[in-house]
Every structure is written in C-alpha cells, then in structure tokens.
C-alpha cells in the first residue's frame, strides 16, 4: 500500500510541477529558493530533474516539504497537487513504514502545526460519514480557516460545495436567507420561489451529499457568541441519519458554549502555526519575494512569534519589508515585539498588521492606493469588473498586479477580495472624505446593479446581490434606484419579518431596512405587522420627519383587520408626541370600533396616562372611568380605580378620590384583591386629618383580607399611622397582632422589623433585638430573614457588640433564601471584620460566600471584595487575587462583569508586572465588547495605568483611539475627562480646561454634566480669572442648573463664605436629591462652619461605588475625625490607602491630611482634586494648606 502511495506521489508531483513550472529556468529558480541541491543535473530536462529528486528519497525531504507548503497555499485547488497530497496522507496512514511518532512533549498544539493536516483529513473523511451535520472551525482572523476549507473542497471529490458569503457587519436573518437562496438556486436544481420558507428548502438540499460552506460566520453571531436564534433552531433539527449534507461554519469569534445545540455540533479550533512550521512558511514567502536576507536566521523564531504564527501577518510583513527594514518595522509597534513570547492577543496582532499595511501602502502607487480605497467599501468578494469600474484611467491590469504582489489583494479562482486589514485601513481613510466615500459606494452600486438591469434578471437568484446593491445605493443617496428593485423582495419580508423582529442597531443597517420596507410597502400591504415594524424602524432612527411617517404607517396598520392591541398602543404613543389630547381620545374611540372589550380596557388605560402627561387630567379620569365601565363585572378593575383616584387626588379632589376608592372596594368584592385601594384611601383620609377613619378603614381591610390574602401591608400601614399620632404602644401591639395572624404560612419579617424599629426608638434596644431574633427563628426555612439579620446587626453594633453583630450577619448569610441577600450579608460581615483588622478572617468568609452562591453576578461581587483584601497583602496574596479574579471571569456571563474583572486584574498586574502587560490585557479584553459603556471604563483604566507610569504619549494614543470608537455614546464624556486629566498631569491646566469646554460643545445637553464638573474643578485649582470667565460663559450657555450651583458653591468657598456655600449646595440637594459631588462640597463646607453632626449625617449617605469611592472614603474619614470620632474613621482611611493601617497611623490625628497631600500620578480624581484647599479652621494648623495647579511642563 505504501509503495503504491509513493508511486502516486511521484506521478502527482511530476504532473503538477510540469503543468505549473514549464520553463527550465523557472524550475531552477524555485529549486534554488527551496535549497534543493541539483549539482550536475541542470543540463537535464526539467521533468527529469524533478524525477531524480523525488526518487532519491524514501520520504519527502524537508526542503521539498517547505516548497510544497507554499505551493499548496498558492494553488489549493490544483487537482494534480491534490492527488499528490492525498498520497502523502495515505503514506501517513500506512503504518509500519512510518517513522515513530514524536514524544508527547514534541507534538504540536491542538489546531496548530501538524494538527492542521489531521483536521483536514477528519473533515474530508470522517466528518461526512460519522460526524454531526454542523462543524464550526474557529480561529483568529488570518490564521488560515478559509485556506483550510479550500483544501477540503479540493480533496473531497465526492461532495458538492456550495458557498454562502456573509457580507461584513452584523447580518439579519432575512439577509442571510436571501444569500442562502441565491446559493441554493445557483448550486442545486432546487427551485425556491419568492416568499418560500428558505430553511425548508435548505433542509431538503442537505439530504444530498453536499456541504454548505458559510465563511465569516461571526457576522451571524452577537457579541456573546450566540448565533441568530433562527439558525440555532434550524441546526438543532438536522440529523445525520436523515441528512447526508453538512454545514461548515468558519468563524473568527468563538461560539458561546452555552447555546442549546453546542453539544450537537463539532467545534474545532484552528490555532496559529507553531514556531517551526511558521518559520518554514515565512522563510518561503521571503525567498519567493527575494527578501530572505532581510530576516537573519537567529531572529526568525522571534519574528514568527511576533507575528503570532499567523499566515496573513506573514504575507503583510513580507510585503512591508519593501518599505522598511526589520528593526524599523519592529519600532512601529514595539509593544508587540516586547510581548512576542507571550500568547499573542488578537487586538495586538491586528494593531501590528495595521502598522505593517500602512508601511506597505507607502510603496504602492497613487493609482493603487486610490483603487484600494475605492474597493474598501465592498463587503463581499468581487470580480475583475469591480476593479475596472474603480479605475476609470484604464490601468486596472497594472493595479491588479501591484495589489496582488503586495498581498493587499487576494484571489480565489475568479474572485478577488482585499486583505481585511488593508481594507480596514483603506476604509478608514476614505471615510474621512464623505464625497469620495459616496462616489466609492456609487461605483460599488453600479457593479452590483448589473444583474438587475439584465433581461434575464431573476430576483431569487440575486438575493445576495440585492443585499449589497441596497447597502451601496443607500450610502450613495440613490434611494430612487433602489425603490425600483425592492418590490421584487416584498414577499420575503412577510415571511422573515414579524411584528416583534429586532431593530438593527447599526445606523446604516437601520436606514437600509427602512428604505427596503418603505419601497416594498409603497403599494400597501395586507399585513398590519409590516406597517407596524416599519413604524418601529422609523421611531428608532428618529430623524427629520420619521415620527410623522411612523404615524402614517401606524394609521395604515390600524385600518386593517386583525390589528392587535400592541399596534394601537404604539399608535397612541406617536399621536401623543405629535398631536394633542383630543386626538388621543379620538383614537381610543376609533379603536373601540374594532378591538375586543378586553383590549379596549388596556388601550383606554394607556391613553389615560398619555393624556395626563399632556395636562389632560379630566380626560384621563374620563378614559379610566370608561375603561371601568367597559370592563364589566368579571374584570379586575382595582388598578383602574386606583389610578383614577390618584389623578383626582392630584387635582385636589380628595373627597371624590376617596369616594371612588370606596366604590372600587365594593366592586372588588371577595373575588378581587382590593388591598391597594384600602391603603390608598387610608392615606388620603390621613392626609386630610382623619386618622381615626383611616385606621378604621385599614382594620376593615384586614378583616376583608381574611385568611385568603396577606394583610401584613395593611397592618404596617395602620401601625405607621398609630405611631405618627404618638401611640407607639398601640402600633407595636397591632404589629404583634399581625405577626400572630400571619402564622407560619405568611412572611411576617416586615412586621418584626417595623415593631423592632419602634421598640428601639423608644429606647428598648434589648427588646428590639429579642424580637428580631424571634422573627429570625419564626422565618425558618420558608421565609427570607436577611433583613432581620441586618437590622439586628445594626442594633448590636449601636450598643458596641461588634462580635455578636458579625455573628448575626454570618448566620444570616448562611441561612439566606436567595443569593442576592446572602451576598449582601457576606460582604457586610467581611467589611466589618476588615475594618476591625480581621482581614484574613474576612477573606476566608468571602471565599465561603463564593462557594455558597450560585448566581454569577453575585459571585462577582464576592470575588472582587476578596481580591481587594488580598491585594493589601504580600506578593503571594496579590498572585492569589489575580488568580481569583481570572477564575471569576471564566464563570462570568456578561460583558459588564467580564470587563469589570479585567479592570481589577489589570490594576493588580500593573503593580506586579508593569503597565504594558496590564494595558495589553485591557485593550485585548474590550475588542469584542459591543456596549460602549462597558468598553469605555477599560480604556479609561488603561490610560490611568499609563499615566501612573508617566507614559503620557501612550495614554493620549489610547484615549484618542477610544474617543474615535465611541464618539456617539454618552460615556465618551468619561474619555474626554481622562484626556483632560493627561493634560493637567503634564501641568497644562489651562489647555485641559479649554479642551473640556470644546468637548462639551460636541455632546448633547444631558451628557455634559460630567465634563462641566471636571472643568470647574480644574479651573478651581488654576484660579486664573480669564479661564474662570470662559468656564462661566460655558455654564451660562448650557442651562445646566446643577453645574451652575456647584460653580457658585466653589466661588463661595474661595471667599471663605463656608456657611453660604453649605446653604447653596444644601438647597439644591433638598430640592433635587443626593448628588455625590455637590454633597461632598456641602459636607466640606459644613465641617468648616463647625456643623459637625449634620456633616456626619450627610456623609453617611455616600454610596461606595467605584466612581465616587475615593471621595466617599476620604470624606467619611475626615468628617468623623473632625467630629471627634477618629476610631470610626480607621476603616475608611484603610480603604484610601488600600491596606491595613499601622499602629502609628491609627494614632496619627493628621493622617487624613497626609493622604490629601499625596496626589497620585494617574488621572483618577483624588481628594485634593475636589478640595484643593484645607483651611486652617479645619486642620487646626497655622496656615491653610493649598494644592495649586503647577505651571505647564517645558
């Protein structure tokens, strides 16, 4: 068998080489590059040379194997070469003649190196016979997934392959189906008419031995790796017993392992080439372009690792050597070189490729660069005609050769596609010139319009082309041309779009879908759902007259039969935005003629909210009363009665409201739950001074509730009224009565907690604690007593029994009925332990909590707390903290949690390994994060870490990139603030202030507050009258009341008018609620006036969110120390220092001042940023302490 295989190998190679290299000089050149000795043989005919080389060995020599590797990359579908390689596979399987396999330590990693051949063999032989119907090959972009599948096509002669090409960008199910139908019609004998169920035809096609190949499948997945839900359902129905066909998915993003059908498909990773095979491939690329001397042999392995073992990166690198030598290329992205021996991140490799492409483009002609930018708008591969259209000067052959030779353009048979990184670079450049980008889209549109103008045009056979022509015509403002062809796809809309179909998040995709639906529905549609969906699309875009057009679509939908309540409700909402109260009421009358009574109740109730919002209280009440009347006797109208009574009470008709509530109570009878009506009526009675009647009504409600309904809420309300009139004993007695009535079946924890509070307020803390313990015992296994544990711990701490308080919290955490409460109690107990100096015990308790909770979100909080405490320890504990957080990432199922944990890890790595490792982790971690507010925090931390190491330029680069990526999201304000922070750390406070003033003008009014705050504090430190005037002008134009008041507060502080500052800030807090920044200034001002007790009370309201933790910890510590309670400040000071306090520090009365003085090098605001001056009245020192803005750095 093996001997026959060798014969096949020789014949196949001879045939291939004879066809591929016909000229003897050409063969000699190839042999020379492959370093195959041909001494004294050059006079022989070419075929004889090859024949002698092949016959001289019993295995393919290493040099020839290297040559074949490159030849195979360039000619994956050549049948003669395929025959030779199949013979190699046969030799590999022959057995006895094969050399012994390498030791395990020498084997290639799964999916890399030699395992590629094994994967290819499995795909070609075992998968069609015994494997599942679907296989997904996943790996980095450029790692060779498409090439591997091309090899499979060439080898699997007994199967037909049908390609489905996914355009770049998030793909809708509808667009995917159009592409699938085009592929089926062109690749099979099936006839798939418009409006048909394309998946059903695909299911039929897969009964035959075909393979559907879907490249770039990541565009059918969301950010979490979940595919389109319709595909998940479809793939789950495929059975190998019924379907000979197979589906091959190629993805640059990993599949979410938790999708329901993950265990029913084969997922195969394709990893980077190992150093040895990567070195051979790179060497061959270099030789073929005559640049082998550019990379010394001793540096080859480093270069392979630097390039991530990625074949696409090899090509780009080889081409870029024309522009610059190796060391200069390394200097373009030094971080990647420094980290070459670590696992290469996708983000870092992509950044490196981008820099190399930019270098290569410097060597390309102007015509070549222009063509590349024009072609960069294409989302799919294209034929030569696209390049002809892109080059009106007629040099397309030269351009084609130039781009291909530089690996910027790739060819597969008669199709071309830009190198993805080159495409990204070109697209970024052309996007800066809107007119040029529009021309490029017009050119691409012309290319895709050709089949639509042909006499033989067939809409179903050109569905994928329609997706592209739609995209390019929309972006080139040729909507009229699109309207003419969109009608042919209207039937598909009804099949694949439902009333509840998701709205595209990408603005371009949203506009494309609007244009498609507008054109398809221009002649009307019998489906109200399509009109409704178009209205949703228009409202989501919300540009120009979109609301008016949405109203028209909804009017068309509601005029059709079988229009459901959801459509009427949206119609009402849009009418409320565009018109007045009368039109809303008229629409309800219109709906009443066509919808069931049960729906009109819902519609009238929603309409009531809308008219009330527009000031039509009377009309709102009338609508609610109409809904009550329409509902009839069997309908639960308690909610309608309650809402109508609320409106009556708001317009000061309390008597009428109470009367209506009593009527609602009577209407509810025993069948419906009227407890809310009893409560509302009692409150109104109490508000008008009739407390006895209110309590009497609540007792009536308690009796009416009987044994069937839980009356604990009524007991608590009645007890509250009794306590408010000074009858605390009666209130406690009633609550005890409620506890007895609740029995074991109902949750009486609220009654226990309220009774304990009243007992504590009258000074009977021991009785309160005893009652809470009784409630804890009574809750048993049925009810959650976490609140009782928490309240008991608070009372125990108040009387100085910290040990017992912690024990109660522990008990509550272990007995909690849900993970939320358990987590809260574990964290509170651990915080108490840590504040008392029991850090190790606190860590142990948090680990216990981690093992106990099952909800991942809560486990994240426990991991983070434990890691924070570990980070205060020695180097080994810092390592433990990193490991703990990494384990938590593995179980995290949400972008927010993963990014938050990455940020924590990065902070620790920055301390342990330096900034580059930490920043690389952050930038890599956010690549697949779709929600801007999650990614922005990681960019901010990356800049902060770089600033802490005085890497100003790199921090600026990171922030500039982040701002460009997230410019349309409100959280970009955080990045602008960070950018200003870099300027201020470099000493240029005036430039920082002016940068923020300019950035503020680019944001919507509601998103400017953060920038205004940062601007004011920087100007507060600078104390430059000219800059302050600019800030005042900015605030005057903004209409930002909060910022205006903060600026006035700071001005009062500068004049030592502390009482006025506290009053101004306090007035706004009392009027508009708690704001951390303004409240901080109020507390500080109160301390300076000597109002210590009020300052302590307000400071206690600070939440220790990460955004305000620094301010909250320092301000709480300062407040307690100035107020004479330094013992309670130690925990807050430890948080400021991020470690435990020493004995000397605990005895240091000015530790809070020393912490204030130390301004960290990063950009995160610190106490001195908010309070740049500590007046002597606060510190007791002889002079004020001031931290002023330094002069700009030279």
TrEMBL record:
InterPro entries: P-loop_NTPase, TPR-like_helical_dom_sf. It comes from the Bacteria. Residues 93-114 are annotated as: Disordered. This is Flp pilus assembly protein TadD, contains TPR repeats. It comes from Actinokineospora iranica.
């Amino acid at each position: 068998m093996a001997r026959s295989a060798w014969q096949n190998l020789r014949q196949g190679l001879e045939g291939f080489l004879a066809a591929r290299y016909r000229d003897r000089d050409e063969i000699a050149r190839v042999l020379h590059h492959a370093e195959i000795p041909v001494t004294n043989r050059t006079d022989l005919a070419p075929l004889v040379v090859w024949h002698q080389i092949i016959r001289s060995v019993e295995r393919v020599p290493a040099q020839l194997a290297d040559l074949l590797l490159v030849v195979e990359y360039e000619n994956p579908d050549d049948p003669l070469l395929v025959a030779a390689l199949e013979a190699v596979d046969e030799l590999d399987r022959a057995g006895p003649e094969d050399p012994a396999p390498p030791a395990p330590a020498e084997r290639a990693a799964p999916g890399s190196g030699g395992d590629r051949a094994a994967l290819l063999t499995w795909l070609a032989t075992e998968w069609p016979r015994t494997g599942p119907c679907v296989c997904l090959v996943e790996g980095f972009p450029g790692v060779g997934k498409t090439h591997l599948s091309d090899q499979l096509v060439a080898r699997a002669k007994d199967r037909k392959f049908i390609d489905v090409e996914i355009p770049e960008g998030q793909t809708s199910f509808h667009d995917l189906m159009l592409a699938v139908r085009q592929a089926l019609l062109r690749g099979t004998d099936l006839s798939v008419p418009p409006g048909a169920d394309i998946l059903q035809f695909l299911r039929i096609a897969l009964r035959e031995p075909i393979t559907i190949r879907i490249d770039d499948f990541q565009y059918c997945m969301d950010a979490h790796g979940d595919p389109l839900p319709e595909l998940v359902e479809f793939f789950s129905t495929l059975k190998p017993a019924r379907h000979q066909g197979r589906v091959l998915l190629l993805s640059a993003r990993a599949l979410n392992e938790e999708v329901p059908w993950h265990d029913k498909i084969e997922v195969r990773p394709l990893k980077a080439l190992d150093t040895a095979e990567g070195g051979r491939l790179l060497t061959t690329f270099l030789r073929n372009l005559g640049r082998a001397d550019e990379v010394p042999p001793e540096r080859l392995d480093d270069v392979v690792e630097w390039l991530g073992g990625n074949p696409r990166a090899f090509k780009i690198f080889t081409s870029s050597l024309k522009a610059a030598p190796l060391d200069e290329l390394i200097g373009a992205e030094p971080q990647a070189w420094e980290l070459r021996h670590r696992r290469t991140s996708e983000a870092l490799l992509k950044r490196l490729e981008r820099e190399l492409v930019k270098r290569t483009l410097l060597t390309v002609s102007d015509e070549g660069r222009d063509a590349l930018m024009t072609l960069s708008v294409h989302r799919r591969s294209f034929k030569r005609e696209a390049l002809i259209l892109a080059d009106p000067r007629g040099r397309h052959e030269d351009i084609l050769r130039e781009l291909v030779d530089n690996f910027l353009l790739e060819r597969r048979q008669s199709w071309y596609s830009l190198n993805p990184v080159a495409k990204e670079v070109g697209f970024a450049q052309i996007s800066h010139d809107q007119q040029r980008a529009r021309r490029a889209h017009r050119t691409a549109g012309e290319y895709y319009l050709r089949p639509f103008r042909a006499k033989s045009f067939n809409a179903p056979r050109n569905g994928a082309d329609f997706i592209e022509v739609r995209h390019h015509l929309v972006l080139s403002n040729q909507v009229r041309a699109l309207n003419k062809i969109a009608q042919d796809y209207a039937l598909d809309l009804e099949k694949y779009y439902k009333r509840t179909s998701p709205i595209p998040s990408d603005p371009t995709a949203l506009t494309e879908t609007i244009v498609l639906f507008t054109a398809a529905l221009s002649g009307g549609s019998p489906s109200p759902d399509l009109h409704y969906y178009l209205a949703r699309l228009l409202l989501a875009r919300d540009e120009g007259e979109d609301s008016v057009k949405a109203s028209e679509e909804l009017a068309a939908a509601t005029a059709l039969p079988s229009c459901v309540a959801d459509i009427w409700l949206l119609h009402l909402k849009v009418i409320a935005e565009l018109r007045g109260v009368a039109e809303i009421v008229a629409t309800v009358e219109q709906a009443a003629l066509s919808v069931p009574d049960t729906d009109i109740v819902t519609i009238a109730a929603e309409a009531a909210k809308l008219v009330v919002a527009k000031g039509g209280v009377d009309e709102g009440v009338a609508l609610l009363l109409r809904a009550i009347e329409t509902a009839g006797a069997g309908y639960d109208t308690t909610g309608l009665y309650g809402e109508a009574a609320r409106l009556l009470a708001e317009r000061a008709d309390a008597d009428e409201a109470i009367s209506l509530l009593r009527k609602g109570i009577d209407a509810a009878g025993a069948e419906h739950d009227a407890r809310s009506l009893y409560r509302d009526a009692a409150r109104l009675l109490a508000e008008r001074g009739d407390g006895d009647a209110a309590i009497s009504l609540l007792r009536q409600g308690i009796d009416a509730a009987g044994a069937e309904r839980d009356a604990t809420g009524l007991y608590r309300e009645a007890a509250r009224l009794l306590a408010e009139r000074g009858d605390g004993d009666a209130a406690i007695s009633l609550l005890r009565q409620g506890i007895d009535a609740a029995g074991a079946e109902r949750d009486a924890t609220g009654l226990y907690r309220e009774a304990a509070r009243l007992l504590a307020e009258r000074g009977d803390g021991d009785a309160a604690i005893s009652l809470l313990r009784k409630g804890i015992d009574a809750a048993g296994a049925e009810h959650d007593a976490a609140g009782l544990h928490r309240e008991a711990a608070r009372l125990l701490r108040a009387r100085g029994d910290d040990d017992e308080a912690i024990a109660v919290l522990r008990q509550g955490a272990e007995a909690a009925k849900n993970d939320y409460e358990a987590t809260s109690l574990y964290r509170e107990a651990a915080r108490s332990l840590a504040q008392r100096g029991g850090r190790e015990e606190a860590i142990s308790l948090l680990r216990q909590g981690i093992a106990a909770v099952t909800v991942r979100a809560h486990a994240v909080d426990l991991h983070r707390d434990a890691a924070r405490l570990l980070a205060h320890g020695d180097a080994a504990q810092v390592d433990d903290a990193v490991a703990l957080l990494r384990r938590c990432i593995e179980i995290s199922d949400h972008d927010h949690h993963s990014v938050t944990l990455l940020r924590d890890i990065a902070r620790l790595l920055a301390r342990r390994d330096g900034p580059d490792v930490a920043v690389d982790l952050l930038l890599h971690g956010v690549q697949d994060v779709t929600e801007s507010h999650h990614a922005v925090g990681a960019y901010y931390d990356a800049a902060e870490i770089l600033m802490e190491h005085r890497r100003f330029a790199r921090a600026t680069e990171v922030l500039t990139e982040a701002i460009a990526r997230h410019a349309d999201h409100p959280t970009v304000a955080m990045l602008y603030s960070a950018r200003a922070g870099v300027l201020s750390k470099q000493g240029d406070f005036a430039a920082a202030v002016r940068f923020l003033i300019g950035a503020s003008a680019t944001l919507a009014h509601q998103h400017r507050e953060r920038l205004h705050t940062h601007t004011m504090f920087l100007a507060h430190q600078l104390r430059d009258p000219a800059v302050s005037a600019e800030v005042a002008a900015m605030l005057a134009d903004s209409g930002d009341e909060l910022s205006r008041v903060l600026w006035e507060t700071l001005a009062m502080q500068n004049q030592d008018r502390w009482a006025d500052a506290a009053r101004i800030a306090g007035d706004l807090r009392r009027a508009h609620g708690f704001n951390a920044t303004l409240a901080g200034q109020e507390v500080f001002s109160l301390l300076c006036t000597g109002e210590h007790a009020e300052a302590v009370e307000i400071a206690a309201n600070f939440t220790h969110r990460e955004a305000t933790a620094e301010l909250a910890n320092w301000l709480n510590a300062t407040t307690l120390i100035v107020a004479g309670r330094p013992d309670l400040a130690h925990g807050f000071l430890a948080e400021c220092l991020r470690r435990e306090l020493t004995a000397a520090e605990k005895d240091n009365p000015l530790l809070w001042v020393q912490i204030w003085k130390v301004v960290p090098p990063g950009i995160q605001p610190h106490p001195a940023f908010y309070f740049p001056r500590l007046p002597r009245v606060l510190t007791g020192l002889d002079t004020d302490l001031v931290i002023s803005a330094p002069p700009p750095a030279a």
